[in-house]
Amino acid sequence: MTRLAFIGFGEVGQTFAKGLSGKDGVAVGAYDLKFDDAGVRGGMIARAEALGVRVAADAADAAREARVVISAVTAAAAGEVAAAAARYLKPGQIFLDINSASPNTKRTAAGNVAVSGADYVEGAVMAAVAGPGLKVHILAGSAAAQAAADLLNPLGLNLTPVATEIGRASRGSPSPATIAIATVSRWMRDGVTSSPSITNSPIWASQPMPSANDRVALRCGSSELPSTSAAT
What we know:
Layout: E1 2-7, H1 11-20, E2 26-31, H2 41-50, E3 54-55, H3 59-63, E4 68-71, H4 75-85, E5 94-97, H5 103-114, E6 119-125, E7 137-141, H6 145-152, E8 158-163, H7 176-189, H8 202-205, H9 212-220
Parallel strand pairs: 1-2, 1-4, 2-3, 4-5, 5-6, 7-8
Antiparallel strand pairs: 6-7
Helix pairs in contact: 4-5, 7-9
C-alpha cells in the first residue's frame, strides 16, 4: 500500500486526490485548516470523503505512515507548514512542496525539513491543474527528486527532475533545453525505444524557442545550463 498525504486541500489537493484515491494500492489522507472552520468544515469534509480521502485531525495525523507528504498550501503559508512538518516527519518520508513560493523560501523550507531526516523535494507546477489534472507537468528539484518521480509517476503524476539543488526548479522559467534533456533522459531510463519528437512534445511546445547555445547544449547532452529566468 502506498500512502500519500496532502497538507492543504484546495484546488490542487482535491484535483490530485481525485486522480490518486481510486487507484489500487493507494491510500490518501489530507488535512486543511478549513477542516477546523465551522463555517466551511461540512462541505470540505464531504468533498474529501466523496473522493475516498481520509480526513485527518491535523497535519501530523495526515502524514502518519505516509510515504510522500505533499504540501499544497498557499505560497504565504509554505514556510510555516514546512517548519511545522519538521516536528512530525520521519526519515524515509518525502516532503513534496508544490506551492508557488520563491526559491529562497523553498531553500529555507528544505533546511527545516532536513532536521527531521525526511527528504525535501521542491516542485514547480507548470500550468493550472484544472485541465491536465494529475498529469500537469511538475519540475522537481533536490537530491531526492528522482526518487520522488520514480515513486509518483507510475501513479499518474508527471514529475521531471531538473536539478539536485533546491531553488532551480522554482525559478519559474527553466531553460527549454534543460526541460528537453530531462525529458529525453526519462525516456531513456524508462526504455522508450521510439522517442517522440521533442519539438512536438507538449512540454517543449509550452516553452519559448531555445537559443543557439541551448540547442548546442542539447545536442551535446549537457543539462548544466544556466536558467533563462530571473535570478533567485
